[in-house]
Amino acid sequence: MNAEFIEALEEIEKDKGIPKEVIFEALEAALISSYRKNFGTAQNVEVVVDRDTGNVKVYAKKTVVEEVNNSLLEIGLEEAKKIDDKHELGDIVMVEITPRNFGRIAAQTAKQVVIQRIKDAERDVIYEEFVNRENEIITGLVQRISKNIVYIDLGKTEGILPPTEQIEGEVYNQGDRIKLYILEVKKTTKGPQIILSRAHPGLVKRLFELEVPEIHDGIVEIYAISREAGSRTKIAVYSKDPNVEPVGACVGIKGSRVKAIVDELNGEKIDIVVWSKNIEEFIANSLSPSSVIKVEADEKTKTALVVVPDYQLSLAIGKEGQNARLAAKLTNWKIDIKSESQYKEMMERENQSS
Question: SS3 for 275?
Fold first, then answer.
């Protein structure tokens, strides 16, 4: 290795941000392994790369002893004093043992170390970029599908959409451009692993932030989201500005804003409801599109009895209980729904028993 190598390291330091010293240290460690592989492992060696010239020297580290039993690891006091007369028993002496053809091995090793360090640095840059974007939305291209895992091209790197984070029934074709939620960024030996989601409620939240300027600007806020991906989502919103109607802002003119989100989610139904500090009002709103006659809320047990018109009982409960289930998730309350007739019967029974 020579001055050109040192210049190359300076360029790498400028372009890639990898300090020269980091490469030198990695190179010295790699050269120790190369030496042991090619010239035997019994010696205790140290490799030093000159920081100015790039020259490489190999030293055997030997302990100064009175009587040498192992010439690979020990050196007699008399011989040690020839190197430096200050040496005493127990000192470690560095004896140069650079093999004649070690320069060629050093050059090959240097190339491998530099390539690996550049790879590591690029991976670190990608990791740092994406770890700071966890919980954000990103657009990617479907690259390939293998064992139900969808691999997404994110430009600089690749992300994975595992089966658990896919929308049930959604079909992914190579070349499709889709929006995804960055769920988690992990550091692995093969580089950063970016786990993406289409099923997370956070995706809906981020889509509303993109489509609704009032949410992006903080005028309208999202209080809570409950979602059964691919089927239905409920989102509770409120406005900090009395002149801005939160549901209208989210729906947009002729439903344009919410339609863009529904289209991105391939037809997933979205109920937008108004959050209220009054829990009875919030629970009633959460059961949209059903109308509610009354709500009896028990703060201690966080349970609510909701009475709806007879003809709206099935609408309030929803298909396979979905509407009631999503309302319960949205409000974080246990909700028991009864029709007006059922409620009257229940009240009559209670009156009779009392």
Answer: coil
pLDDT at 41: 67
* pLDDT value, residue 7: 80
- Quick one: pLDDT at residue 240? 94
Dihedral angle sign, alpha carbons of residues 215, 221, 226, 232: negative
The residues pairing with 182 across neighbouring beta strands, listed in sequence order, are: 196
The DSSP result for 33-60, as a single string, is HHHHHHH-SSS-EEEEE-TTT--EEEEE
Q: E strand or H helix at 131, and its extent?
A: helix 102-131
- Nearest C-alpha neighbor of 138 from the set 120, 121, 156: 156
Q: What is the pLDDT of residues 199-214, one digit of tens each?
A: 999 999 999 999 999 9
Query: Which residues of the chain fall short of a pLDDT of 50?
Result: none
Can you list the domains of the chain with their CATH numbers?
A: 3-129 (3.30.1480.10), 134-197 (2.40.50.140), 200-275 (3.30.300.20), 285-354 (3.30.300.20)
Outline where the chain has alpha helix (H): 3-16, 20-39, 77-83, 102-131, 201-211, 213-216, 246-251, 256-264, 279-286, 313-317, 322-331, 340-353
Q: Is 272 helix (H, G, I), strand (E, B) or coil?
A: strand
The reported pLDDT for the residue numbered 159 is: 94
Say how far apart CA 248 and CA 14 lie, in whole Å. Answer: 53
- pTM of the full predicted structure? 0.72
pLDDT for the residue 167 = 93
